[in-house]
Amino acid sequence: MAEKDINEISRDARVLFNKANEAVQRDNLDYAIALYNQVLEKEPGFFECRKALRELQFRKAGSGGGFFKKMLSGASSSPLVAKGQIALRRNPTEALAIAEQILNSDPNSSAAHRLIVEAAQALELPRTGTISLEVLVKNSPKDKNLAIEFANALGASGGDTKRGEQVLMELLRHYPNDGELNQALKNLSARTTMDEGGYGALEGGQGSYRDILKDKKEAVSLEQEKRVVKTEDTTERLIGEYETRLQTEPNNLKLIRSLAELYTQKNQFDRAMALYDRVKNSEMGNDSSLERSIANTVVRRFDFQLEQLDSSAPDYAQQKEKISAEKLNYQITECQQRVEKYPTDLAIRYEIGQLYFQAGKITEAIQEFQKAQGNPHKRLSAMGYLAQCYAKRKMYDLAARTLQNAIKEKVVFDEEKKDLVYNLGCVLENMDKKEEAIEQFKLIYEMDIGYKDVAAKVDAYYASQ
């Protein structure tokens, strides 16, 4: 895995990130924290989001609390810390998410920050680990080993090495004759000198070529190529290690599952599914997360088949349609099985509602979205889909009423509310309520002139006056 900037993350993650930033501006901190965590679930290497979340966690916590509050917080987070330590050995990405859960309520938790440092090392996310190391140093300012670890991490990640030097020099005031501290400071100072000359970033194959190459496009190309190769090499290395361990630990089900995930990443789906079958037929087989992993692997195989199609082939469109239909049919069948197995899980009801909607099964979609409204995290989105279902049936009055109710519940005028307001405008247009429709589009126009075709609609309205 590699750390990413905003231009490298998925569109869905970017939309959520922008929503979170808007929530911060409106001082809706809880909502923003929830959105930042959602982004990191999709893009754990998105450093800008990780940094923004950390700042917001501290901002929400404030400066108060005292010893008693910290003691209670530490006690309540102990089960999560233990869970994170277990996940660290099996799935470092999961360990990152668990650590963030702890930091959402206790941003100073040393146990959670240590989890992040170790998970970041396993996932090769150097800057992610560095921001947690800085908190650990603040929590234990006289810990020599921690200070050296932090300073070295700053140097390795291309961060603020001057900051690392300051930390080490501060400790040297207390331990002026410590040889290890003096050597660490010398090493870091040498790295700083190289960085200032433009070559430190290349040391050990780490860092950026931008300061060396004049052609910025060439620099970007080399960085991306290096990142892909590094990820591939890491996956190959882990597969080799896990296969070797499996010979001596044939019944290690967590190891088998981790190996299956790696083979999925390498698009070796038959090997992955064979390993998943071993877990499925064991005492750990009745696990909803295992079912989801298997389903994701099958869907990824469909996606891989689509990627392999030759777009210049005469039957490209037919082949694409055939595979896409098979993929959707599989998703619906698999999700139906989970609905039957977990009938009270409204998140799964919402998921199958989306699949029914995508397949054009509007009656079935309406039924599922009506149930999914009971999930507070899916309620407004489910109402939005319900309105679209009604509109497809030309039940415009039901669609309008559903959207109006959803809009009343949505306080923040974010992307989700824009969607609701825009769809209401479109429904009112279909009801020949032109004046009411344009009022909805004008609400968005005042906030975001570039949203969909709102500018064209509003401009055309005023031109006709």
Quick take:
This protein has 465 residues and is an all-alpha fold. The chain contains 22 helices and no strands. The model is unreliable at 63-75, 196-219 and 224-230 (pLDDT under 50).
Can you walk through the features of this model?
The chain is an all-alpha fold and 465 residues long. The protein folds into four domains: 1-138, Serine Threonine Protein Phosphatase 5, Tetratricopeptide repeat; 140-212; 232-327, Serine Threonine Protein Phosphatase 5, Tetratricopeptide repeat; 375-465, Tetratricopeptide repeat domain (Serine Threonine Protein Phosphatase 5, Tetratricopeptide repeat). The chain has 22 helices and no strands. α6 packs antiparallel against α7, α9 (161-174) packs antiparallel against α10 and α18 packs antiparallel against α19 (396-409). The longest helix is centred in the middle third of the chain and has 33 residues, at 216-248. The protein is globular and about 85 Å long.
